[in-house]
Amino acid sequence: MGNLELHQNGLRYSSTKGIKVDIPFSNMKHAFFQPCAQDELIAIVHFTLKAPLTLSNKKVTEVQFFKESGIAADDIDGKGGRRRMNDLDELELEERERVAKKKLSQKFVNFAKLVENQAEKTSTPIEFDIPYGSNGHEFHF
Known about the structure:
The protein is α+β, with helices and mostly antiparallel strands.
């Protein structure tokens, strides 16, 4: 749990426990972004580093950050009580989940573009790869 921030020369992750990790653009070898897919609830940004970082006394060259998208199905009526879902409730929940996944994916896309733009300004260009969907097509937002 924490925040990933874009800075002038790289990224900083600050955990809720006070741990700070800096990743300069100059240490980024490869980056990819994975949006929420139809059957996935998380969006991911992943970096392969040129030189390892030490995290929890371990040297790592792969770091990734993710956020889960989800709607609480137990509180569908908005009153905090549980009740049985009917077909309309299920359709409404599925639509809300679809919208939430799309919003989360778009936030990650926007962040990746900001990172690319800032890295370009520092003469250390980074291009995020975006994987293809399971149907062989790119994800669209």
